[in-house]
Amino acid sequence: MNRTDTVGSGRSFRVPGRLVPAVLGGFLLVYFAFPFLSFLSRTGTANVAARLSTPEAQAAIRNSLLTAPVSTAVATVFGVPLAYLLARASFVGKRLVEGIVVLPLVLPPVVGGAMLLTAVGRFTPVGRVAAAAGVPLTGSLLGVVLAQTFVAAPFVVITARAGFGSVDERLEQASRSLGYGPLATFWNVSLPLARGAILAGITLTFARAIGEFGATMMVAYNPRTIPTRIWIDFISGGIDTVVPLALALLAITLAVITAVQRFGRIPTVVDG
Fold this sequence. Notes:
Elements: E1 3-7, E2 11-15, H1 19-40, H2 48-52, H3 55-88, H4 94-106, H5 109-120, H6 125-132, H7 141-165, H8 169-177, H9 182-193, H10 195-210, H11 214-219, H12 226-237, H13 239-264
Pfam family, one: BPD_transp_1
Membrane topology: Multi-pass membrane protein
Keywords: Cell membrane, Membrane, Molybdenum, Transmembrane, Transmembrane helix, Transport
């Protein structure tokens, strides 16, 4: 809707109703894009191919590509059922459960890593038992998975819950009236109808997991992942030394998001 304002001697001008949101949003968009473009401009000063071919960089990329999909799978397997429960059930303590799910999102990742250390560190009962069994929970790829899952899993839970909440419960009731049990109804009705939101949550979870630094640094500084390797390179060599691995991380994330959006048909910010 357009608004007409009168100025001076009856002269009027029309202000498009979306002009103010566009201007305000444009400032934020520029704020997002400017650092990104500035960073890309540094690629000419960095020998990208040579730095990515070093054993340290390749090990970091390999570790990230091993752990992030595992963390995403764990978050999905356990998070989607939890999301459905929160969307459909009412029970005592539900608010507490919702708060626990959101907690890793509001905590600084370093604090989340410290909390994990108090639970599964090598000097804790759980950590000692695991280490004695030959499965250390810190300073290992498993420790990386634990850190990534802790900080990234809420994304799939929250997004999938919104998807399940948008499914008409009457469709589920119709399925139950036809003789299908709760699991069959969930698998054949609820899950397909919430598929877009779930895929969006999985994508966000993967992107968050592969870029996780703070909690990972606390729980498993070794073996290196891409973010921890970037930090080490920055400390030792400055901003130009982190460009190659940062570009690799960006490329991996964009490739996954593009593939899921293309083949999974998840909603995007530009959908009407």
